Amino acid sequence: MRNKWAESGKTCKFPQSLMIWGCMSGKGMGEMTVITSSINAQVYVEILDTFLIPSIERMFGDGSIIFQDDNASCHRAKSVKTFLQERHIMSMAWPANSPDLNPIENLWWKLKKMVHDKAPTCKADLATAIRQSWRQIDEVYCLSLAESMPQRIQAVIKARGGATKY
Q: Which InterPro entries is this protein grouped with (predicted)?
């Protein structure tokens, strides 16, 4: 998952912003990286190869997983689908205009709060604060997010596709 990161520091004239990619599962935090280029399918495959694959291997070994991302166009590119298929990674299918049920959105929110509390004042401090905060998120929190998926789906069904608390 990727996230555009914006953070205002107390002494910054302009808000600082970074793009990050990170992953999580019910087993805990996966890898995270700061992205310094624009994202297209080729860059996304490189990110998956460099950060997702080692995270899967560390957390699941040879076990099977279902990979959930957002529906960004670069995530749906043929080269990305081929990459995932070649590595036997099943990608969760969902409609393009569906409610965002991805638990990592809750993780981004928590991470932003943690980083805000560190009050970074420049991009370098922001990157450091993000990395430190990422490492502080524990497995119990990640498991609670993963286990919330049935409730998330039920809430969307009950709301007939409308807004939910998630």
A: RNaseH_sf, Tc1-like_DDE_dom, Transposase_5
